[in-house]
Amino acid sequence: MVYIAIIGFGNIGSGVAELLSANSAKVADALGDTVELKYILDINVPVGSPYEKYFIKDFSVIENDPEVRIVVETIGGAGAAYEFTRRSLLKGKSVVTSNKELVATHGAELVSIARDTNSNYLFEASVGGGIPVLRPLAQCLQANEIEEVYGILNGTTNYILTKMRSDGIRFEEALKQAQEKGYAEPNPESDISGKDTARKICILAAMAFGRLLDPDKIPVKGIQSVTLDEVLEAEKQGGSVKLIGRAAKLPDGQIGISVEPVTVSRDNLLSDVNDVFNGIVVRGNAVGEVLFYGRGAGKLPTASAVIADVIDAAKHFHARKRIYFEDGRNDAVGELPVWGNTINS
Ligand code: HSE
Description:
By secondary structure, the chain is α/β, with parallel strands linked by helices. It is about 35% helix and about 25% strand.
């Protein structure tokens, strides 16, 4: 029996508990053992919840319980989540997360602690929601030199841009719908401003090129100033406005990386990636272009990726996964060649 604790019981954390319970037989079959929830750490205990008996408020209970070997961190942010992740890894517990902010800001340190303590820090759900992309990038494409990674990495902004075009609705109305569907961040400013996409493209670049750049130091433009007129004009000209995160290895060895709204022409597959869906293109020097496509946000798609990592962590209690990248927070960011029609408003 493998015991886990969930820390942070919001949209994603509760999705993990629900999916674990709904698909317990499938999970047991995949692992060859059962996965049991032992604790849920959260400041709010939902009265009447079927999970009420698991709730605790003191992290040290989890930290000091040797039976808990995997901690699922779905708190979000880089405050308490950072502290509890460090403490878990230092105790040799593996940590699985969907927290892109934490991976993008402290990922190099956390991966390095995991390496030292023979545990694993796994974060498939942090990029692309339910789409398997980080593991395929690190494993299935490992025979390639990766030349470029780009794509639509934020479900909320893609949903907003799609609805503005298809329903002719205003930005605010489309954002409200995305929030109601549970796609947006608690503070949707991270989605709209492009910050969330910046964190995700930095994680993808770290997997592809081995250096985790600082998302606060890369050029980022969000969709806050994209107007309905621009969206409709792009369509008239045979394209769609998309928020694109992009990273490439430049000839001088630097990593070029950026986030900006771009008019994607119809002959590019990303122009058909709509609603909450994400699309990520990876170009390797042997395989050419590979497209990853699926639901980039939402409770159960994200829980699907989290639980797959739980199974993977449990399969590798005595063997570390090879997910290593170095801290590139002081690296200079290279300038990418122009791509598509950038929206300059
Ligand atoms: N707010 C994020 C998005 C959630 O809309 O893509 C998934 O990371």
